[in-house]
Amino acid sequence: QYRGRSLTWTSILLSVFHAVTSFYVPGVAPIDFRQNDYVEIKAVKLTSSRTQLPYEYYSLPFCRPQTVEYKAENLGEVLRGDRIVNTPFQVFMNSEKKCEILCDKPNKPIKLSLEQSKLLAERIKEEYYVHLIADNLPVATRLEFYPNRDEEIKKKERDVQFEHGYRLGFLDSNKYFLHNHLSFVLYYHKEEVEQSKEHTFRVVRFEVQPQSIRHQDLKADKNGACTLPEPPSFSPQEIDATKENEVLFTYSVHWEESDIKWASRWDTYLTMSDVQIHWFSIINSVVVVFFLSGSILSMIIIRTLRKDIANYNREDDVEDTLEESGWKLVHGDVFRPPQYPMILSSLLGSGIQLFCMILIVIFVAMLGMLSPSSRGALMTTACFLFMFMG
Hints:
390 residues, membrane, five-stranded antiparallel beta sheet, 9 helices, single chain, six-stranded mixed beta sheet, transmembrane helix, alpha+beta
């Protein structure tokens, strides 16, 4: 009877555990795409290293879908200035597109008003970047340069770097040019499956090559398709801030197979140089702080100890050196209460609060719990720990 009861309880527990299903944190779980599955392209924000003011994607006159839907964001995303919204880009898994018009009107360019033209020119002048995401991967612009001048070595040794997002446009000879054509290059990894099952794909990299092409050079038809001209035979799309302009937004999609697995797809993005970091300003500030601190401390020490050092160097007055005077009497003030105890306790408590918050955030990030795929998790955790450590 005892053995039968134990078998019964074991079967009940196994049936309960069999019914339990696992789940993933949203944005962290891999998404398997089949052939021609829809891959949604979303817009995040517009950023600039000059103004430090982020704007949402549709603050500029870009093409809009029929229904604009904003993604529900966490606290960290809101503090970062993210406003994730859908876009009219139609991208399908492993499906090529040579050139396609983005807006609703297939073969007619968009007419920008004078205010919209001024706003675009101002954003281009302020060096704004556009940030898009596909399968939670941020878009990146490939920057290639050759470190060696020899032509044969150039082809072999090529240094490739990436930067977040793509430039809204560029300034040349006091003229503003808009990047109105986007060439998307998406890399996928083919998952290994059994012979009887269909292959699935996972997105492992999202790149873009922006181009500025005048709408007269883009040969558009009524079906929404267009033809890209060759590089020497077209002019860039100029934005004149003094009058109305006509712009045609187009895009192309190219897929490439990659050996990078889904678990390692963030390695390329983590090695990017962030345009938001002002290294020169940081180094300059650090050098100035160290220089001022060292000069002030040395001046205080020299002025305070000059008299005592002079007394010690005298050979005549040996008895005077035996008496403690001046700065040597400070040990008597250690146990006295400070003049402003509330300010001291507040600064001390806030310092310990910040120190504990930073320490725990760094430790949790080292464990891999704050993945870059979960947007805003780092800032949300920092805000929560700052309040909790109070």
